[in-house]
Structures are given as C-alpha cells and as structure tokens.
Amino acid sequence: MTLPAASNVQWLVDLVQQRLHVIGSGADAKTAGDVFDALGRDVRTRLADLSPHDLHNHPCCSIGLAVIHDDYVQLGRIGDATIIAYRESEVAREISTDFFEAREAGAVERARSQQQTRQEIVDAMFARRTEYIKGVYEESVFSGHPDAVFKVHAETLPLESIDTLLLCTDGFARAVADYRIFPDWHSLGHHAREDGLDSITARIRQRESGPTQAAAAKKFKNADDLAAILLTLESEN
C-alpha cells in the first residue's frame, strides 16, 4: 500500500507538520511527552482511516521540538534530531545522539565485508527500522505503527538561561558531526546567525558533490533530510 503523497515518509512528515500547528496552538500539551503522545494518537487515527492493512513498511521520522512556557522551555527529541540551545552565542545545551550513526556505520561495514546484495542491504535496513519503531533499544523513532514505542529524550531549561535555539535533522547536523564544515556548534551557530541556514545547506551539498570523504564512506547515502530552524527567544523576566 502507498499512502497519498509523493512517498510514505512525505505523508508522515506533512501530517506531523499539520498536527504540530494544531497542537501548538492549544493549551493541552504542557511537555514534550504530551506533544509526542498527541502526535502519535493523531497519526494512528489517520492511518486507521486509511485502513493500512497492506502497509508493509510503516514510515517513520525523527522529531525535535521545543515547548515554550512563560519562564521555561522543554526541549525534546525522538530519533536523531539535534537541538542546540545557545546563550550569547555560546552552546548552553546540546541534545543529540550518536546511536543511529553508530548503527548505520556498522551496517555499512557489514554490507561491505559480507558482500551483501542490494536486497540483503534493504532487508537489513527495514529490520533495523522496525527495531527503532518498536523501541527495542534506548533510542526510537516516531511512527504511527500500532506497536510504536516513543523513547523521548527531554530537558527543561529556564527561559532566561538561553536566547537562541537550533533544531535540525541528522542531515543538517552532518555539517559538524561528519563533514567538519564547522569545527563545532558554536561556529555553526555564529554562521547561521550571520549568513542564514541556507548557506549552510549549500555547503553541505557542495561537500557531498565533491570527492568521497571518509565520513561519507560510513553511510549508505547522502543527506536526504536537510532541514533546520533557528529560533530567537525572549524572556519576560
């Protein structure tokens, strides 16, 4: 079964975006966990309406979000989204994981050493994805699968302790974590404020179109999820 979008993942991402607008405008979601629970219910309900009995591989994604209150902000992620909190251009807090990075690097190495066929590589990828959806390990991904388990990683910070938030996907985070376009998140944050996020995206694409890098050799493909948002926060205190 194919969901009504360019791809099943695109269907999920579009729905998440729509529902986040609705959830964010309400007053019921007090924590990151509340938001993820509401999203999960909404996606499962929509999938049930589509009767996805023939949906062999459920789409999944990573999500990073900020729940902002009058005097504090709760940052939460599922999957390999990255959240960086800044205070006067310095990194105040980083919420990220290298779990998925390590798993993919291991899968790439096995595929090469065992000379796996393309079908074997794809089957292994879907098997890992199912494990992430069901929360077998300490990390999970977001999905509307009926057996989905959300492993939410959240931190609460006083609003006055930070002034800027960067929320980005794994693909965007490669600018620091893999490609070393920027030596650290402090440097990337400064560049983002001065020249914008699009300039960073362009540099990532430029790096990936060049000669193969050692970091890229640990992955099956180039970044296909380049997205980021930079938020400026103001405390009422």
UniProtKB/TrEMBL annotation:
<dbReference type="Pfam" id="PF13672">
    <property type="entry name" value="PP2C_2"/>
</dbReference>
<feature type="domain" description="PPM-type phosphatase">
    <location>
        <begin position="10"/>
        <end position="186"/>
    </location>
</feature>
<dbReference type="InterPro" id="IPR001932">
    <property type="entry name" value="PPM-type_phosphatase-like_dom"/>
</dbReference>
<dbReference type="InterPro" id="IPR036457">
    <property type="entry name" value="PPM-type-like_dom_sf"/>
</dbReference>
<protein>
    <recommendedName>
        <fullName>PPM-type phosphatase domain-containing protein</fullName>
    </recommendedName>
</protein>
